[in-house]
Design goal:
- By secondary structure, this protein is mainly alpha-helical.
- The protein is 76% helix and 0% strand.
Length: 80
């Protein structure tokens, strides 16, 4: 399984799982909820990737830095 496939699987599983755990209360606006979900998916993905790849702390820091840049590049611009 490539890192890209792992990311996609974790994204799909993580967002579905989070959506089931957090009922729509109507209190938070969509952008806040999406940002919260995005951050949780990123954290879970990083933790799982570190574990599966057996990264040292230095490698994990580089991995996280690269992932953060990639997430920022692929995030959708906010619509006004």
């Amino acid at each position: 399984m490539t890192v890209k496939q792992l990311w996609l699987a974790l994204l799909v599983c993580g967002t579905a799982r989070l959506a089931a755990q957090q009922p729509d209360s109507g209190m938070q606006d969509d952008s806040t909820r999406l940002e919260t979900l995005r951050q949780e998916v990123q954290q879970r993905y990083s933790a799982r990737a570190h574990e599966m790849l057996g990264l040292t702390p230095a490698q994990a820091a580089k991995f996280d830095s690269t992932q953060e840049r990639a997430w920022n590049r692929t995030s959708l611009p906010e619509q006004e």
